[in-house]
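#onboarding

Welcome to the new folks! Below is a worked example of what a typical request in this channel looks like: someone posts a single protein sequence, and someone else replies with the predicted structure as tokens. Don't worry about understanding the tokens yet, we'll cover that in week two.

Example request:
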Amino acid sequence: MMNMDRINKRILHELKKDGRMSNALLANRVGLSPSACLRRVQELERTGVIKGYRAVLDQSQMGVGCVAYITVGLSDHSKPSQEAFEQAMTASPEVRECHNITGASEYLIRVETRDLVTYKKFHSDTLGSIPQVNSIQTYVVMGSPKDERA
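Example response:
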């Protein structure tokens, strides 16, 4: 586990806000020389603390008009059933996140579709065709006043 001192935490905080900022600007914001800052960022990347960088997209510009969170319960709790479900979710382009969770359901997935009609097709044709799926509960996102996923 990497040492998370005050400076490393500040570096991560700044990069979470803007992963494209220059090393010179980052160094200035955290109070380091550019070379010392770069060494720290490279070490954070090497150790896997920083897993990557990504673009934050405007979903409406990408044709996404419906975002839903869905809890899924399985009828069979065996490892092969879980693996089959996870493979189906991995193969579904509508599924943006899939999490194995604790509680009344086994999975929480986040789905993005063009609209509610397209979501219904995913619900019926994808989730409805997986034999291990026993229960589905859908929560359609109406707004996101805070979303720090990047």
